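Colleagues,

For the teaching module next term, I've prepared a clean inverse folding example: a structure given as tokens, and then the sequence designed for it. I'd like students to try predicting residues themselves before seeing the answer, so please don't circulate the second half yet.
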């Protein structure tokens, strides 16, 4: 009995806010160094499997850790911001983790880069849950912001909407693909200038018969190796790409506005540190999503392809790490506050 109590106390001592901050900073530093060292690849080549797999590990583990820390906050009756706040954010982290696992299987195991995958269902739910949790954090509080603070929120919202509109009105495209973020990405019509793609994309255009036949023979075995249900599901989900593209951008802008409001509302308060981390995590998620979409649109406009695993993907890791740190800091502050009130009584 005493040994189990000792193990529990040791676990609690390891999961202090300070230790989690140090671990999070270390994970972020290792991640950015890994991306800086290995994310650059020769033009026209794909990332090796070990690199792509490593990026998934670096991203998935922080989201799982953030989900567990939010779950700890939800179970604590003394959490100040409200248990349902952390339930919503924690579910968002968990669904994002599940979505990354599914998309990793779709991309690394099946070798697909689809318009829409089953992972998008979980990505959408994760955005809804995170937004729900952040709204619950705002509703019980009176937002007595000064006019300068409201102007700041308005400017951030305007910039976020402007960038989203610019990304949404990217150059005309034909065909789409998807990156690690869950955001559908686009491929321009100029990409079909490659003679190797005429046979599968644009049959009416005259091409070299030898090249077309060679391309068809090369593509058939790859498709034949995929399970029929994967091909059927990919074809069924593909028409939803434009709608999901719009939905992701709307969610990103909405979370950006909520995060800005929360940041100013909690500024200087007792729980300022934790909510600064949450706001920074939301900003990182916005930067990763919008940056990925913008760079992908620019690359595809030049007839190139933006492959997941690029340098901007590190902001997804930053987002997960910051959510985890914010949850840990909230737990520590709430615990200290409750202990302090007991001593005074």
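(Answer key — instructors only)
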């Amino acid at each position: 009995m005493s040994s189990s109590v000792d193990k529990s106390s040791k676990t609690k001592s390891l999961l202090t806010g300070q230790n989690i901050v140090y671990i999070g900073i270390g994970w972020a530093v290792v991640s950015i160094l890994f991306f800086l060292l290995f994310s650059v690849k020769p033009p026209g080549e794909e990332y090796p499997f070990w690199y792509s797999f490593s990026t998934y590990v670096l991203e998935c583990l922080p989201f799982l850790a953030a989900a567990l820390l939010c779950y700890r906050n939800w179970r604590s009756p003394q959490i100040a911001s409200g248990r349902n706040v952390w339930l919503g954010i924690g579910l968002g982290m968990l669904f994002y983790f599940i979505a990354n696992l599914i998309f990793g299987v779709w991309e690394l195991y099946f070798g697909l880069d689809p318009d829409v995958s089953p992972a998008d269902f979980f990505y959408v739910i994760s955005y809804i849950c995170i937004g729900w949790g952040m709204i619950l954090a705002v509703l019980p509080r009176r937002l007595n912001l000064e006019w300068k603070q409201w102007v700041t929120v308005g400017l951030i919202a305007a910039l976020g909407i402007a960038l989203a509109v610019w990304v949404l009105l990217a150059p005309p495209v034909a065909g789409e693909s998807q990156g690690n973020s869950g955001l559908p990405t686009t491929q321009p019509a100029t990409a079909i200038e490659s003679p190797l793609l005429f046979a599968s994309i644009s049959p009416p255009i005259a091409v070299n018969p030898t090249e077309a036949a060679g391309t068809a023979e090369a593509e058939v075995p790859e498709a034949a190796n995929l399970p029929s249900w994967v091909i059927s599901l990919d074809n069924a989900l593909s028409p939803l790409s434009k709608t999901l593209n719009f939905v992701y951008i709307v969610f990103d802008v909405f979370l950006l506005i909520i995060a800005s409001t929360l940041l100013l509302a909690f500024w200087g308060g007792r729980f300022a540190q934790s909510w600064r981390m949450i706001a920074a995590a939301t900003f990182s998620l916005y930067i990763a999503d919008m940056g990925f979409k913008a760079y992908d649109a620019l690359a595809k406009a030049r007839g190139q392809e933006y492959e997941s695993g690029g340098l901007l993907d590190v902001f997804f890791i930053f987002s997960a790490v910051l959510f985890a740190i914010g949850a840990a800091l909230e737990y520590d502050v709430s615990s200290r506050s409750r202990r302090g009130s007991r001593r005074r009584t």
